[in-house]
């Protein structure tokens, strides 16, 4: 691990990179970069930063009119994965700071996640939060998209898909059936080698992969399960992992997509977020041997916070129109705000590992379409609000249910709210309910309202106001 400038110099002497890539994240979670030839590397870059023109980075200029600079976080230094004819590169994630004061600006989303963790510590509830993921995404062989005033279409292809089973010429069969990809083995699972190579590359940057497999969404759907990490490592490493997965897929002549629902009538891609709070001795405070299902009261209140703020949280954890195409009945996805041990329709699952060092809960609602720093920070703040206000999900009738919602008694079902069904609905919920995010100055109102405005005007209405290709199938001859 790189801890200081001397460590970085020693890495450069060993690896002899040709360039240093400074990466930063905009409000929406998109990664940008600027590159410095390695001979220009100096310690002053880490003290004074590199001045940045933020015109292209959404949210940075709009929310911060002062001059800003990138100040690299030296601890995030990694060697980029090798690519054909590409210069060896060291990548470093950066904080976006005021050029005069060198302090992170309020809309730097890395800083928001960091403030959330400091707020947790200030409450005295726990020392830190620990996170791990089930990351789902698709790897396709090709994707073509066109959108214009007179046309709109997409076309996706995968060599695993059964729609290719009647191709002319050589075809080796072994196709993945619709909704039938879960844990498929080679030769049906044609992506096993790519995932193994990806695992090596991710392990090398500290994103330790516990397991990987073909996921249930048919052709090209994959899933990786990570080991636990503190919040900043979890957010940083997911950002870099998405970058590496896309880069490695491109090197294989393929395309990796984290879009929540790229294929009609197939399972979508979620980001199942396992989380717990730990004490100074490193044990989970979510565990109580004598508690309900091994859960402490603190854990139940944390779950209550996630559930009571679930509608507003969705605007941050699921911030795309496409997110709500994934969250529909008929698939093993959450649609209701209750907690369970087994029901995949539940927003929250509890860990059945009744061990003090392992006990945690899983939020199954999020996906990868947003800003992971905001997503983790918002989930933590919701959970802490539940603890602060002692929101007991059992008393409120939100679980524990170990059955699918149609089988829950009607008198209990009336107490269970649904996850929003559109980005517009989620944004309106966030507009009404965001006070919990403002605690400890973790988020601020200006950023939240800018987020809501962008998502509604630039994304929701941009989709709503366009005819859909299926409109023509339904209505062209009326």
Strand runs, count = 17
Find the structural class using helix and strand composition: alpha+beta
Helix count equals 15
Radius of gyration over alpha carbons?
23 Å
Average pLDDT for all residues: 91
Instruction: Sketch the major β-sheet.
Output: 9 strands, mixed
Q: Compute the separation of the termini in Å.
A: 65 Å
Low-confidence stretches: none
Give a quick set of tags describing it.
globular, 478 residues, 9-stranded mixed β-sheet, alpha+beta
Care to describe what's here?
- This protein has helices at residues 5-15, 44-48, 60-63, 109-123, 192-204, 231-251, 297-308, 310-317, 323-326, 372-388, 410-413, 423-432, 435-438, 445-464, 469-475, and strands spanning 19-25, 31-37, 50-52, 68-72, 78-79, 89-98, 128-140, 142-148, 151-157, 209-214, 221-226, 229-230, 255-257, 271-278, 336-340, 346-350, 361-363.
- α4 runs parallel beside α10 (372-388), α7 (297-308) crosses α10 (372-388) and α8 (310-317) runs antiparallel to α10 (372-388).
- Strands 7, 10, 11, 12, 13, 14, 15, 16 and 17 form a nine-stranded mixed sheet that branches.
- The model has no long low-confidence stretch (mean pLDDT 91).
- It has 478 residues and is α+β, with helices and mostly antiparallel strands.
């Amino acid at each position: 691990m790189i801890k200081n400038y001397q460590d970085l110099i020693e890495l450069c002497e060993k690896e002899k990179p040709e360039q240093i890539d400074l990466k930063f994240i905009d409000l929406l979670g998109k990664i940008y970069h600027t590159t410095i030839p390695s001979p220009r590397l100096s310690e002053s870059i880490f003290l004074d930063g590199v001045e940045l023109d933020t015109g292209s980075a959404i949210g940075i200029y709009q929310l911060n009119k002062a001059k800003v600079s990138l100040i690299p976080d030296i601890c995030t230094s990694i060697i980029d994965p090798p690519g054909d004819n590409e210069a060896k590169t060291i990548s470093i994630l950066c904080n976006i700071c005021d050029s005069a004061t060198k302090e992170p600006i309020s809309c730097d989303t890395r800083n928001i996640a960091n403030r959330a963790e400091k707020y947790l510590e200030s409450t005295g509830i726990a020392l830190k939060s620990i996170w791990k993921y089930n990351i789902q995404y698709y790897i396709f062989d090709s994707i073509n998209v066109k959108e214009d005033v007179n046309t709109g279409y997409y076309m996706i292809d995968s060599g695993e898909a059964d729609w290719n089973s009647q191709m002319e010429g050589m075809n080796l069969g072994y196709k993945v059936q619709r909704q039938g990809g879960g844990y498929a083995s080679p030769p049906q699972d044609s992506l096993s080698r790519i995932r193994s190579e990806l695992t090596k590359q991710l392990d090398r940057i500290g994103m330790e992969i516990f397991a990987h497999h073909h996921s249930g969404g048919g052709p090209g759907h994959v899933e990786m399960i990570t080991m636990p990490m503190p919040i900043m490592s979890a957010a940083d490493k997911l950002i870099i992992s998405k970058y590496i997965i896309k880069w490695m897929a491109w090197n294989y002549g393929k395309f990796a997509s984290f879009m929540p629902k790229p294929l009609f009538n197939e399972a979508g891609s979620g980001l199942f977020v396992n989380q717990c709070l730990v004490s100074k001795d490193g044990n989970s405070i979510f565990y109580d041997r004598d508690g309900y299902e091994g859960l402490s009261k603190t854990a139940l209140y944390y779950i209550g916070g996630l559930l009571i703020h679930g509608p507003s949280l969705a605007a941050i954890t699921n911030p795309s129109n496409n997110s709500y195409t994934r969250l529909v009945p008929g698939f093993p996805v959450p649609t209701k705000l209750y907690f369970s041990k087994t029901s995949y329709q539940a927003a929250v699952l509890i860990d059945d590992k009744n061990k003090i060092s392992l006990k945690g809960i899983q939020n199954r609602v999020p996906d990868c379409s947003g800003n992971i720093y905001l997503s983790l920070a918002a989930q933590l703040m919701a959970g802490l609000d539940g603890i602060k206000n002692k929101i007991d999900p059992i008393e409120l009738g939100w679980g524990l249910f170990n059955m699918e919602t149609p089988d829950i008694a009607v008198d209990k079902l009336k107490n269970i709210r649904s996850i929003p069904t559109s980005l517009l609905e989620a944004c309106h919920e966030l507009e009404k309910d965001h006070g919990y995010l403002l605690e400890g100055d973790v988020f601020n109102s200006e950023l939240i309202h800018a987020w809501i405005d962008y998502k509604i005007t630039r994304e929701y209405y941009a989709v709503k106001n366009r005819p859909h290709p299926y409109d023509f199938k339904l209505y062209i001859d009326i």
